């Protein structure tokens, strides 16, 4: 779509990462399957093992489910584009993808803050921990994270959907995100920028401060800082052509790399999860042996 006049755009073209499609498809497929496998394993183990029915693992299970959904919004579409060469996406699909990404991303920000609060209670108030962090409290924190995110993202998508577009419909990104789509708009973006700064304050700065003040274990805090830092960098800093290239790379980082690392960060050195995995596999092995003996 070329020209300077205002146009009704029905289709966008996601330029993404289109060089070496075969190699990239294989790499992203391996990453996607690893994310699904790692997080599914966490959900399975923390659900089936009674020893892991604690508030900490309830939040970890919720985070794993969210990470699988979050990654599934972008990676399958990107892999389909690499496999078929079709990089187009309709306006409706683009708006839907953007809403789900923002909704899940906002919920994850507050969920990470809730996990930090859980660790704060466990470490600083151990005697009152189970009384405060009861089932009602932890379910409320998880559900509340989604409730807070939903209406604010509706406002953001409503503002973007009302924008007129002119010039090219090519989006230098691998999924529909706010900065690249605003670059294609030919209207006053004051309301959109105001909404972005308000959301950054709500979903990035507030949870970040809570995490920073609550977390004792630096290695876990680093992952959260990277998540919020990349999101803050993406949505707050001025949008220049060079910035958009960095933005695309950062988006790849916090939509793919962090979900890939989370299962390792939370469980690799966790003795309880390792013990639960051993029990799970030992029980399966014993069941298989029992079935063989029964058949014979």
Automatic annotation (TrEMBL):
Keyword Cell membrane among UniProt keywords: yes
Cellular compartments annotated: Cell membrane
Classification of source organism: Eukaryota, Metazoa, Chordata, Craniata, Vertebrata
GO annotations of cellular component type: plasma membrane
Domain of life per record: Eukaryota
InterPro entries named in the record: GPCR_Rhodpsn (IPR000276), GPCR_Rhodpsn_7TM (IPR017452), Olfact_rcpt (IPR000725)
Recorded family membership: Belongs to the G-protein coupled receptor 1 family.
GO-annotated molecular function: G protein-coupled receptor activity; olfactory receptor activity
Record PROSITE patterns: G_PROTEIN_RECEP_F1_1, G_PROTEIN_RECEP_F1_2
Protein name, as recorded: Olfactory receptor
GO biological process: detection of chemical stimulus involved in sensory perception of smell
Gene3D superfamilies linked to this entry: Rhodopsin 7-helix transmembrane proteins
Organism of origin: Anolis carolinensis
Boundaries of every G-protein coupled receptors family 1 profile domain copy: 38-222
Membrane-topology annotation of the record: Multi-pass membrane protein
Keyword check for tRNA processing: no
Keywords tagged on the record: Cell membrane, G-protein coupled receptor, Membrane, Olfaction, Receptor, Sensory transduction, Transducer, Transmembrane, Transmembrane helix
